Amino acid sequence: MNRQVIIAGIALLAGGLFASCKDDEPEQSSAVQPAPGISEETYAGGLLGTTFNQSASAYEDPTPATEQAGMVNAFKYGEFFFEHTITQNNPPFNGLGPLYVRSSCESCHPGYGHGRRMNRYRADDWGNGYLLVVYNKTTNAYEASVAGMPQTKAVEPFKPSIDESMIDIQWLPYTDEWGNAFPDGETYDLIYPEVNIPEAAFYAPLTTDYANLGFRLETTIGIYGTGLLDAIDDDSLKAQYMKEEQDGYLQLNPAIWAGGNWASLYGNTNHPKRFTYALSRGPLQDAAGANAIWNITNVTRSDRRKHYLSLTPSIYATKASQDPDVQAKFYDLFPQWRVSGNVEQDIYNYLTCDTLPIEMSDKDYINFMVWHRGLAVPAARNMNDATVQRGKKLFSDLGCAYCHRPSWQTGEDRFTDPNEFFADADNRLPRYPHQKIWPYSDMVQHRLFMVNDIRTGWCRTTPLWGRGLAPICSGHNDRLHDCRARNVIEAIMWHGSQQSDARRTVEAFRQLPKADRDAVVKFIEAI
Description:
- This protein is α+β, with helices and mostly antiparallel strands.
- It is 26% helix and 9% strand.
- The chain has helices at 46-49, 64-68, 72-83, 226-230, 234-247, 288-295, 313-321, 324-333, 343-352, 362-373, 386-398, 400-403, 470-473, 488-493, 503-510, 514-526, and strands at 50-51, 99-100, 131-136, 153-154, 168-174, 190-196, 213-218, 257-258, 261-262, 377-378, 408-409, 436-437, 445-446, 459-460.
- It starts with 45 loop residues before the first helix and ends with a helix.
């Protein structure tokens, strides 16, 4: 890892950087002070969560809170698991059985950021952050014979759930009602993906009539700063929903919020859902990263001693156990699973076993979560620039800041873990109490009504912080949930459907002179 960390304007407590494994809970909130002359918004991740690195490694830095708590070594060890290729028999980087989505985390989070737009679906293509979405078009439910994140890779002798060589992605041109042009004559291009997966590509029997299956793409998002988003108090999230409901401008997803209260919470917890486009995850300790190290690379750990196969695991297990090709090689490759002597039964038992050997130790998992919760947010840049400031004012005046809420105040950050692996206020992970952060998201789902839209149409407002560094950190500037927008202007104009929650904002944006439109773009790329 090439790290050129510039912690400008941040002073750590003496000795805090090298403190290690303290038994007492670290006092993190008083560790840093703002530098004179630097605006608070420059500290996008607050005083405890901001890095001033603006190089190609800007998304990779530990937060000041992580450094102050003496967790830098743990952070670096955890980072190994994000960057390293997972194989079958290379402890501690072993897993991948029997199916998987990617062989490393970084391959779909290029430069720790947002996945990039791809012209084909190949799991091994660097930067392919796409997760296939295979669902019932009538119910919007995922197809049960494949996983929520369908696996297109398998280890011998098993076969993938979907043959990726048959997946076809076409990028089609789209002309909006304004002819892809602003009133002053400046033009832009819009494209969107059409995905086709033939029935023959599916390995296990489908539970949905093939003619009723829909296919979409969802890409990965940047993972920096997720610990800070986790530190936003549950009550603050609730207040945001209540405000938007009372304002009455936009409909809220009735599956999440209805009648002045939560319609659903996360699992068996009292926590609201806050992570992923679909708001499918609650606390970070059971959110995307904690799950991905298990279900993307299929690495077992003490609280996940089973394979990630499909939404109904018995469907894939039955198909594979009866497959003559799998049967022919199973005992040669898995001699320890010759238990009954009935190869079909032994294969089925292996695939559905929930007491598999542990591949990722508890210590390694803790380090991984220190890294995941400890990633800093790049500081906002050029905030004193006159054009950036004009763009900021226009961003607010146009109404963009309603959904892309600029700032939040974190709470006590006494996080919980639905898996009970980490305890309340666990001092093994960095924490971010009482920080003013600037993610530019209301953390709520809205609808844009785009052609070939996201499954269900509801999509959480994506945080904008740090995205202006994507070209140098991740090698691209693709935006939106499926990377259909190749720059900021395209992303804005995809908000302009007649039914879109952002329709009036886009109409107003269109009427701006070019210099003002450019100022809005410059502001978005600065934060």
